[in-house]
Specification:
The active site is at 490 (charge relay system), 546 (charge relay system), 652 (charge relay system). GO terms for molecular function: calcium ion binding; serine-type endopeptidase activity. Residues 1-33 form the signal peptide. Keywords: Calcium, Complement pathway, Disulfide bond, EGF-like domain, Hydrolase, Hydroxylation, Immunity, Innate immunity, Metal-binding, Protease, Repeat, Secreted, Serine protease, Signal, Sushi. With 705 residues, the chain is mainly β. 4% of the residues lie in helices and 39% in strands. The strands form 13 sheets. A 6-stranded mixed β-sheet has the order 1-2-4-9-6-7, with no helix packed on it. The radius of gyration is 62 Å and the shape is elongated. It starts with a strand and ends with a helix.
């Protein structure tokens, strides 16, 4: 129930009585006027004594108040008053709020002057209800009863423009909020933008009024400072301008001012006029200030700015050179280059400085020079001009018995480097200083002696390893470089000791003699071996891959008596009697020459002098028909089906040679490996040789040739 307070002028007797007692006492007390104050969110009022008939001469006033943010809504639940003669001129209930009267009501419910079912709502938080009865009533009327409630006022809907941006209603009140980038003014309804103290230092950009192109906010105070680095000019141009204006007074409301360096322009308002400069420029900075008052609905402005560098002095290209200057302004660079054969001496790039000068000293173009070319082992290099300038040549030559691998002439290039890779001098392979004898119809077994030193790569290999079951094992071999000798793998493999069968003999058990024709000649050079390397796929039982390399403890010196043989390559060709060329894989009935110091017969002694024999190369099918043991792809056969020509014991590891068709050089086509039976040069039997070409890559990688 709402709080009620009663006051009656000149009626102190009832001042402190409870309200129910007070209302009853009014009917008998001579004082008939009173004012009742009501507050709270809801309540009820009624004529005195209701529902019993009310007395005459009553004036009762209710002053209803509700909290801020609410209005009073009143509705009648019972109404029975004396009707009036003209309007409500006898008894009535009058409802008002401030200076506004909602109505004066009388009669009974449903009558013309009664309030009916309508509710009465005040515009504020206060309402006055006055009940009046005159001096007489012909009939007994019960009066009225009414209820009131506090209705929330939706300020956001009912009050136009109560908030600048967003309005939020709640029971008893509302609050305002702002868009992002704005803050609520101290009046709690206006929004002010954050647009002061803005520093712009990018090379280009845009400045707009807050919210552009929508209307800018009220009470704005904005300023932008555009600042350029030294050496740059600021260019500012307004593309759109619409600021509140006044017909008589210059910019009294909203205004924009500009300070370029130390010169102030403005204030500006309205629309852009012809007296504005087409473009505003400043050397250091431009400050833009903008203010707006509490009214207006203009869209504001948009301006663009950019920095342009101040120009530097013109540059001249150096002699024999060029200078490229895309833009001679601050922050840009000039690039120097030279004609071919010249290089930039000094800075290749210079920057345009804020002072208008270029950084660094002016470069020059000087002729390119190359470093002195390095020497070449076993040869020499001759430069045709000691200046070593661009374009000169270096000519490489090799010592006798050596040849150039690579370019024999290199030029000083424009980049200061010599063209091509540095060549090397390699031993000439497969060429004898002494011409071999013409091919005869003879054989090593009982054959002829080779011409002295006509096969300068011939090597006599001896293994003495008693601890490995080898008292004396002579073999042949071929020098392939200053450090390496090519021989058969079985020559350096243990056979007689089953427990160590297949092992390599120690390197210090092996000696190699080079540069001799007669092995009894004491002038022959005997060489120690530091390393023995067999082909990785060598099989000691089947003699497959019967190839080995011996590293000499010291490199030999090449002479007419000591020279290397060639190792075949993929493009090695041979020729028949008709000079038709064939790849090594397709040799048709050609003869190779084999050399060695082996036995000339089964029961004959070792030969002291180097022997030679020319042997036909046998087709694989013919060899397979004659040899019982299986051949592998790493083997090739040679010999005469009639017998009489063959290699024999002690020749193992020696070369079976062919002559390359295009160069005339000898290469090791095969290595003496094995044969069937206990006799040599028997009819219907052939010698089996390790096929050297199958091991080219391994030989070259191991011996580094």
């Amino acid at each position: 129930m709402a709080n009620m307070a009663a006051a009656s002028e000149g009626c102190p007797l009832f001042r402190w009585l409870p309200i129910t007692v007070f209302l009853m006492a009014l009917s008998v007390h001579a004082c008939q006027a009173s004012t009742i104050h009501l507050s709270g969110m809801h309540g009820m009022i009624a004529s005195p004594g209701h529902p019993t008939p009310y007395e005459d001469d009553l004036d009762v006033e209710w002053l209803i108040s509700v909290p801020d943010g609410y209005r009073v809504r009143l509705y009648m639940t019972a109404f029975d008053l004396e009707p009036g003669s003209i309007g409500c001129d006898h008894d009535y209930v009058m409802v008002s709020s401030g200076n506004d009267t909602f109505g004066t009501f009388c009669g009974r419910s449903g009558s013309r002057d009664s309030p009916g079912d309508q509710s009465l709502t005040s515009q504020s938080g206060e309402m006055q209800v006055l009940f009046h009865s005159d001096y007489s009533n012909e009939h007994r009327y019960t009066g009225f009863r009414a209820h009131y409630v506090a209705d929330d006022i939706n300020e956001c809907e009912e009050i136009s423009g109560v908030c600048d941006h967003f309005c939020h209603n709640y029971l008893g009140g509302y609050y305002c909020s702002c868009e992002f980038g704005y803050s609520l003014h101290e009046d709690q309804t206006s929004c002010q933008v954050h647009c002061s103290g803005i520093l712009l230092q990018a090379a280009s950009g845009e400045v707009t009024s807050p919210g552009y192109p929508l209307a800018y906010p009220r009470r704005s105070e904005c300023d932008w400072l555009i600042r350029a680095e030294p050496g740059y000019v600021i260019n500012l141009n307004f593309e759109d301008f619409d600021v509140e204006d006044h017909p008589d007074v210059r910019c009294p409301y909203d205004a924009l001012t500009i300070i370029q360096d130390d010169q102030e322009l403005g204030p500006f308002c309205g629309r852009r006029r012809s007296e504005w400069p087409e473009e505003m420029r400043a050397d250091r900075q431009i400050r833009i200030s903008f203010v707006s008052d509490e009214s207006g609905n203009n869209r504001g402005f948009r301006a663009r700015y950019n920095f342009t560098g101040k120009p530097c002095v013109a540059l001249v290209a150096p002699s024999n050179g060029y200078v490229s200057v895309p833009s001679a302004t601050v922050g840009n660079t000039a690039e120097y280059s030279c004609e071919e054969g010249f290089r930039v001496a000094g800075p290749a790039e210079r920057a345009c400085l804020p002072s208008g000068e270029w950084s660094g000293n002016e470069p020059q173009c000087e002729v390119v020079t190359c470093a002195q070319p390095g020497g070449i082992a076993n040869g020499e290099v001759v430069v045709n001009d000691e200046s070593l300038e661009y374009g000169i040549s270096a000519v490489y030559t090799c010592d006798p018995l050596y040849e150039i691998r690579g370019l024999d002439t290199r030029s000083c290039r424009a980049d200061g480097q010599w063209s091509g890779e540095s060549p090397v001098c390699v031993p000439i392979c497969g060429v004898s200083s002494i011409r071999p004898r013409k091919p005869p119809n003879s054989r090593i077994v009982g054959g002829r002696e080779a011409r002295t030193w006509s096969w300068p790569w011939a090597a006599h290999v001896v293994v003495r390893a008693p601890n490995f079951g080898i008292e004396y094992r002579p073999c042949g071999g071929s020098l392939i470089s200053r450090n390496w000798v090519l021989t058969a793998a079985h020559c350096v493999t243990v056979k007689a000791r089953p427990e160590i069968f297949g092992q390599i003999v120690p390197a210090d058990t092996t000696l190699v003699t080079l540069g001799v024709h007669d092995i009894t000649d004491s002038s022959g050079g005997v060489r120690e071996v530091s390393e023995i390397v067999r082909a990785p796929s060598y099989d000691a039982r089947s003699f497959d891959a019967d190839v080995a390399l011996l590293r000499l403890a010291e490199p030999v010196t090449l002479t007419d008596r000591i020279r290397p043989i060639c190792v075949p390559t993929a493009d090695t060709f041979v020729a028949d009697s008709d000079y038709s060329l064939y790849e090594v894989e397709e040799i048709p009935d050609l003869e190779g020459v084999a050399i060695g110091w082996g036995q000339t017969g089964r029961d004959q002694p070792w030969s002291n002098v180097l022997m030679e024999v020319y042997l036909p190369i046998i087709s694989r099918s013919q060899c397979e028909d004659a040899i019982l043991s299986g051949l592998t792809d790493n083997m090739v056969c040679a010999g005469s089906s009639a017998g009489g020509r063959d290699t024999c014991f002690g020749d193992s590891g020696g070369p079976l040679m062919l002559k390359e068709a295009t160069t005339g050089r000898y290469f090791a086509f095969g290595l003496v490996s094995w044969g069937e039976g206990n006799q040599c040069a028997q009819a219907g039997q052939y010698g089996v040789y390790a096929k050297v070409g199958n091991f080219e890559n391994w030989i070259r990688e191991t011996a580094q040739i």
